[in-house]
């Protein structure tokens, strides 16, 4: 992924014929569309890109209808019990245990530097890409362009990511037409969006490159850095299963995932957890859809930090439970 190029798009001309050959990425390209032309001009004016280079690049872009289909029905739209059953499997746990053992030194180094528990890092990578096995099937350039210009609901967000992507490719000497990622444009082993790559990716293995595609060490360090910068507190709890009584707790349920109440307030409302923590500890009451009714959880600041990686509470709970299962298996093997 770190093939150096003399100019930002020096090798693109060599790839045009191959990329537009029948059956690969056949299509007309989008460089002449007014909205794309405006974007190209903005990149040239704001960041000193060459317009002709960007025209050549966008003429290789193909709008992907499948991307639009997939982003309209993410896995997190499923009920919790179905989502959990789909992703929290014995196989994923065992693969996580093996990943933790294989990269124990890198995980220890990341924990010492950033204070993030190894099992949390492993669980993030396990949920995102099955420990690097499934990093996506779409050219990042195609995915981001499709969502920037054909997905009005979040076009502004994805145009900023497309901007970040072109900047990171220039900074890192990466040919922008080559990287493969998810349908949303997330990249590499930890599935960083381009803006996250630019802000949080680190070179943990010391080879002077921030390679989240081929270096598990860099991926591990980058996830740890992301968490450290987004509020992770070492040694603090993530979540506890809760029981409820009465009806007062219902008024404390809301869509915000920030810990807005104290444990004492939750207790007075009929919420109990099996843990000895200060009554002044800030927490949030979460309700998830289980197979036999609602599941209640009390979540803390570290749970909120996980939602900074993916805003879904289902995702954060899955990461927490996978991390807990990996930690338990690892402790058993000692």
Automatic annotation (TrEMBL):
UniProt-listed Pfam families: SLT_2
Residues forming the catalytic site: 128
Record-annotated Transglycosylase SLT domain positions: 33-324
Sample GO molecular function, one term: peptidoglycan lytic transglycosylase activity
Single GO biological process annotation from the record: peptidoglycan catabolic process
Coiled-coil ranges per UniProt: none
NCBIfam families for this protein: MltB (TIGR02282)
Name of the featured protein: Lytic murein transglycosylase B
Gene coding for it: mltB
């Amino acid at each position: 992924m770190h093939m150096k190029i003399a100019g930002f798009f020096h090798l693109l001309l060599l790839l045009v014929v191959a990329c537009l050959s029948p059956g690969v990425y056949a299509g007309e390209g989008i460089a002449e569309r007014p909205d794309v032309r405006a974007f190209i001009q903005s990149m040239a004016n704001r960041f000193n890109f060459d317009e002709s280079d960007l025209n050549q690049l966008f003429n290789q872009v193909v709008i992907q209808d499948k991307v639009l289909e997939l982003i309209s029905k993410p896995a997190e739209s499923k009920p919790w019990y179905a989502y959990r059953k789909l992703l929290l499997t014995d196989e994923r746990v065992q693969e996580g245990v093996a990943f933790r053992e294989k990269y124990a030194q890198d995980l220890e180094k990341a924990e010492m530097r950033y204070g993030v528990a190894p099992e949390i890092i492993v669980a993030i990578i396990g949920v995102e890409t099955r420990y690097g096995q499934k990093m996506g099937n779409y050219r990042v350039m195609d995915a981001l362009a499709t969502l920037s210009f054909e997905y009005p609901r979040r076009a502004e967000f994805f145009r900023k990511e497309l901007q970040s992507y072109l900047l990171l490719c220039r900074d890192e000497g990466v040919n922008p037409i080559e990287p493969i990622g998810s349908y949303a444009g997330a990249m590499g082993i930890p599935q960083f969006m381009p803006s996250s790559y630019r802000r949080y990716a680190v070179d943990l293995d010391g080879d002077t490159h921030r390679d989240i595609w081929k270096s598990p060490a860099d991926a591990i360090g980058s996830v740890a850095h992301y968490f450290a910068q987004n509020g992770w507190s070492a040694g603090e709890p993530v979540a506890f299963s809760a029981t409820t009584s009465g009806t007062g707790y219902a008024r404390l349920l809301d869509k915000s995932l920030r810990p807005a109440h104290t444990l004492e307030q939750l207790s007075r409302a009929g919420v109990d957890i099996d843990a000895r923590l200060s009554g002044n500890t800030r927490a949030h009451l979460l309700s998830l859809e289980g197979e036999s009714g609602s599941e209640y959880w009390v979540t803390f600041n570290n749970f909120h930090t996980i939602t900074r990686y993916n805003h879904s509470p289902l995702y954060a709970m899955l990461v927490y439970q996978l991390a807990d299962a990996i930690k338990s298996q690892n402790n058993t093997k000692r």
